[in-house]
Design a protein that fits this description.
The chain has one helix at about 75; strands at about 15, 25-30, 35-40, 50-55, 65-70, 80-85, 95-100. By secondary structure, it is mainly beta. The longest helix has 4 residues, at about 75. The protein is globular.
Length: about 110
């Protein structure tokens, strides 16, 4: 599935070891999709099409960073946002997560 965007240099289908954008950046793609740039936490990788919990670090050197982990009943209660990863994202890597639009049918 291809996605277009207004912003040059944004690719929703990649994950990288170093940040290409500021974590927390929002972007809008085709069909009214909304995306957020996150970092996968350092303990659990994200599989393609996983529902993810996006949490905000509150302390330490990574204060106010957004991390994503696979969604569970436990972490859903404390999440900042939820979304769907369109590609697999390795632990510690960066990527885009869809947080709204037609591809997300609740």
């Amino acid at each position: 599935m291809a996605y277009s965007t207004q912003r040059p240099g944004v690719d929703y289908t990649t994950n990288t070891a170093s940040a290409l954008h500021t974590v927390g950046t929002l972007d809008h793609g085709s069909k009214g999709t909304a995306w957020i740039y996150i970092q996968c936490d350092s303990t659990t990788s994200i599989a393609q099409y996983d529902w993810v919990c996006i949490t905000q670090s509150a302390s330490g050197s990574a204060a106010n960073s957004l991390y994503a982990t696979p969604l569970t009943a436990t972490n859903a209660a404390t999440s900042y946002k939820v979304g769907v990863a369109q590609v697999a994202i390795s632990t510690g890597n960066y990527g885009w997560v869809c947080i709204g639009g037609i591809p997300l049918c609740f």
